[in-house]
Amino acid sequence: MKSFERMEQYFSDLRTRKQDLEKNRVQLQAERQKLDEDFETAFLADSGHDEIQDHMARVDGDLAAIDKKIHILDHAEQGSAILTGLARAALLEGKNIAEGLNAKAANQADECVKFRELYVESLASLGKIHRAGSEISYKCGQASRYIPGEKQFIGVTDFWPKVKPDAGLCERKYNQKQF
Known about the structure:
Blueprint: H1 2-45, H2 49-79, H3 81-144, H4 160-163, H5 167-175
């Protein structure tokens, strides 16, 4: 989903910008602390403290501007007009994709139902053959009782264990990630 990727990119950009601002903020705070020490020294020496005080005011202004920008970025993560637009685009795109997938899923489900019906019919035929074979086996067993010294078994293989549905396999295939 392109629009969702754009929304993720938006959040990534916000995080990157916020990290950069916070790094600048830490540097300015360190500079401000150094200026405090320099101001104290200059004030006690009565030399150059006005310039340092002006520089401190500029650093304080820069810190306030950074704090405001960080606040704006925090607010943007909660719900700005840009984010609202990106979210609406992602929802619309997702809805369109979901409708297409739903149509494909319905067609595939119909196909599965056809195969299931064919499978059930085949199972019924196999069961009919097995029942006929069991009846023949029974009758041959009865007939062989009348042949002295000879007991013969004539049977038909039961294929049920080979063809019975495996619900676990079906569920694993249904839930298997294929893309």
